Amino acid sequence: MAQFRAKKLDIGCFVNIRVIRDHTKRKVFEQYETQRQALRYIICNTTLPQRARAQAQLQLSQMHAYTRSTQINNRCIEGGKSRGVLRHFRMARVSGAPGRLLSPSHC
């Protein structure tokens, strides 16, 4: 969403709209993570009154989708691909760069 997107990007890799969107999702998730955890704690706490738990559940359901951890995808820093990304290298397996890093005698 444009409302969360930074005016100046601090991305040091390949940039396309999907990478920008994923970067925005990561920043927004980091910003709202503690608030979401607190609301989930209130919802699961059975010692609290039912009204307070229902209000917390309503607030949580009305939060933006970018605040969820499931919205974040691993992306390749070279090509922006989302499939076949090796977590340790943050690169797609098709790009071939991890193979070059692992084997010095690669031709």
What this model shows, in words?
A hairpin with a 4-residue loop joins β1 (85-86) and β2. By secondary structure, this protein is mostly helical. The termini are far apart. A two-stranded antiparallel ribbon has the order 1-2. The protein is elongated, with a radius of gyration of 19 Å. The protein has 3 helices and 2 strands; from the N terminus they run ααββα.
Key features?
44% helix; 107 residues; 4% strand; two-stranded antiparallel ribbon
End-to-end gap: 44 Å
Question: Which runs of at least 5 residues are low in confidence (pLDDT < 50)?
Answer: none
Q: What does the overall shape look like?
A: elongated
The description of the largest β-sheet is:
2 strands, antiparallel
Count the E strands: 2
Which series of helices and strands comes N to C? HHEEH
Strand content: under 5%
Number of H/I helices: 3
What fraction, in percent, of the residue positions are helical?
Answer: 40-55%
Average predicted confidence as pLDDT: 82
Give the strand line-up of the largest sheet: 1-2
Task: Please give the radius of gyration in angstroms.
Answer: 19 Å
Structural class: mainly alpha
Short description:
With about 110 residues, this protein is mainly α. It has three helices and two strands.
Secondary structure blueprint with pairings:
Elements: H1 17-44, H2 50-62, E1 85-86, E2 91-92, H3 97-102
Antiparallel strand pairs: 1-2
